[in-house]
């Protein structure tokens, strides 16, 4: 494990060398970082990390994005997620897998009361419609590992929430 300064990521290129597979789950919130900070973390840092990984020999890049990602969206969150998906694909990995999970169910160290209430509600909904609106983070992690162990179905694969659930159970 290497600790890097994302503001000076290019100085840490060595940390990105010699890996066949790269996993990226980097992200923040607009509430925590502001609109500019959100764009910097969720788009710019991720794109730069992907470029460094490719330059370092990475063949398969696995990106956690978001359901609804669309570079044409009028909503900042979904637009930035769509933009970073396009940027990562443009890097030219032999294989690029993009996961688009719905609401992530997890325990957080920081307090997010609105998110906590949504997770409680979605946890109940998930008992009836398990793949519709949410996914436990553990299932996303298992899906990320499983996709790397399977042969690729093309240069770019996009996995929506239902496929993440299926892979996460495998």
Automatic annotation (TrEMBL):
GO MF terms here are: catalytic activity
What is any one of the record's Gene Ontology cellular component terms? Answer: cytoplasm
* Occurrences of domain NAD(P)-binding (ranges): 4-151
Q: Which Gene3D superfamilies match?
A: NAD(P)-binding Rossmann-like Domain
- InterPro entries the UniProt entry points to: NAD(P)-bd_dom, NAD(P)-bd_dom_sf
Instruction: Quote the PANTHER family the UniProt record gives.
Output: OXIDOREDUCTASE HTATIP2
Under what name is this protein listed? Answer: Protein HTATIP2
Organism in which the protein naturally occurs: Nyctiprogne leucopyga
Q: Kindly list the organism's lineage.
A: Eukaryota, Metazoa, Chordata, Craniata, Vertebrata
